[in-house]
Each structure stands twice: as C-alpha cells, then as structure tokens.
Amino acid sequence: MRLGYFACLFAASIAMAQERNFVACPIVRDTKTVPCYLAEYEGKLYFLGIQQDITAAFHPPQLKHQVLVEGQASEGPLVCGGIPLKPLSISVIKDVNPACNTLLPAEPGIDAPPAARGAGPASHPLTLSAAPTESLSGRQDFTILYAFNDDYVEFASIATVQKAAAYATKIRASAVNVMGYRGTTVLSNEERLIEKPELAERRAQAIATLLRGSGVTGVTADWKKEPEPGDGKTDPSRRRVTITVIP
Questions:
Q1: Edge-to-edge, what's the strand order for the sheet holding 102-104?
Q2: Which of 54, 183, 201, 214 suits a disulfide with 239, CB 3.0-4.6 Å?
C-alpha cells in the first residue's frame, strides 16, 4: 500500500515537470494589489504573470486575443490560483477572438505575488545604456529572442543590441553578421505551429538597421528560409536573431 502511495507521488512529480504548450484565452483575475493573468488548459489553471511596468520580463497578454503559452509546470504552491510555469514564454495571437474576455473577481485568500515594479508606465527612469563590455574579447555572439510570429524587439532585447553595437565599436570589428531565423512550436496536443515565411528576413533586417543606426559599420544581414525544427521543449529559443561580432 505504501509503495503504491509513493508511486503515485512519483507519477505526479513527473507530470508536473512536463511541458505545457498550448493556445488559450488569457484570464484576468483581480486582486487587492495588481491583476493576475492565467490560462486554462485541460481543466487546470496556469499562472502566467502579473501586471507591472514595461521593463518587466512579463508582458501581460491582451483580452480578445488568444495566447500561445510555452512553459514547464513547476512544483510548489499555486500562484494566484494557478500552477506556475517556469521557464515561460507568452506570445499574443494577433487575430481577434471576442470570446477571450474572462475577468475573475478578487477572492479572499488568492493574492498576487509581490510586484517589483508598479503597473502602468515605468516606475523608474528607463535606461538603455549598454552593459560594460570590458570582459568581452574575440569573436562574440549575441542573441535576440522573439514572441511567436512577431518581429517586435522587446525592451531587454534592445539592451542586447546596444551591447553588441558597443562591443563592435570598441574593437573596431572587421565584420558584424546578423542572421535571422523563424521557428516551429510543438504543442502538447502534438499540433505544430510554424512561423510566417517572411519573419526571418524581417527580424534580421530590423536588427541590422538598429546596429547601423548605432554607428556600427560592416553589418551584413542574412536569414534562413526554412523554419527551425520544434521539439516542444526549446522552441522559444529558436525564434531568434544572432549577431556575430568578428574582430
């Protein structure tokens, strides 16, 4: 009997460690502090994040739009009534879906985790200065990641572009090569989503333009036409642009 009990616990821990890749409507839960964002999959609620300012890593999804959720279920207590996902990638599906409009009222005992930054505009001055590059030497690669089917450069990614530009300028790089990719996402139901064919080029060209605008010379842009394969585990890391700075 005891052996069966531990077998059930082991099976539960294995299930919790599995990836959860799905498309669903975001759900907004009100709390006494900031809104929480959740999504439902196979009858379970998953915690996505809380409302903060634009410098936060999590960008709240929009109602009336579905979201692609890619993450791994984490062990531990529920957060805002949902299972936490770590790591987590959220991509807003641009097509409008009026059914995605669920708002849950605040409930006693369900609180949002502490917010490092307030909701709304940035609660402190936004600084885009590049990080110090004194420790870098030789050939260096910098990676920009993207939401699914999007070429928007996030706040943190702009800092990465600036870091690459600062390093290229400092060492007077002989070449700066930009390579764009598009990816495939494998959902938990085994459905495969492939990014639009033109995205790899658009991503590469946009990053090359940012680098040239920062005064970097010798910038070339290229892109891979075929989508990167998906495995259901590392798919968000394949939606990318790489910047290679060559001395």
A1: 19-24, 65-73, 83-96, 44-50, 36-41, 26-29, 102-104
A2: 183
Q: Could you please report the per-residue DSSP string of 163-208?
A: HHHHHHHHHT-SEEEEEE---EEE-TTS-EEE--TTHHHHHHHHHH
- Coil, helix or strand at residue 57: coil
CA distance linking residue 14 with residue 205, whole number of Å: 42
Q: How would you classify residue 39: left for phi > 0, otherwise alpha for psi between -120 and 50, otherwise beta?
A: beta
The β-bridge partners of 148 are none
- pTM score of the predicted model: 0.84
Q: Name the residue with tokens 């400092």.
A: 170
Domain 140-246: assigned CATH number: 3.30.1330.60
pLDDT tens readout for residues 136-155: 999 999 999 999 999 999 88
Query: What 3-state class would DSSP assign to 86?
Result: strand
State the residue for tokens 């939606």: 239
| Amino acid (1-letter code) at residue 128 | L
pLDDT digits (tens, 9 = 90+) for 225-238: 999 999 999 999 99
| Confidence grade of residue 156 (pLDDT, cut at 50, 70, 90) | confident
> Is the bond preceding residue 87 a cis peptide, omega within 30 degrees?
yes
Q: Where are the domains of the chain?
A: 2-104, 140-246
* Calpha distance 204→153 (Å, rounded): 11
List, in order, residues 6 or more apart from 166 with CB less than 8 Å away. 130, 133
Instruction: Tell me the C-alpha to C-alpha distance, in Å, between residue 90 and each of 22, 48, 104, 123, 145.
Output: 10, 8, 20, 23, 12
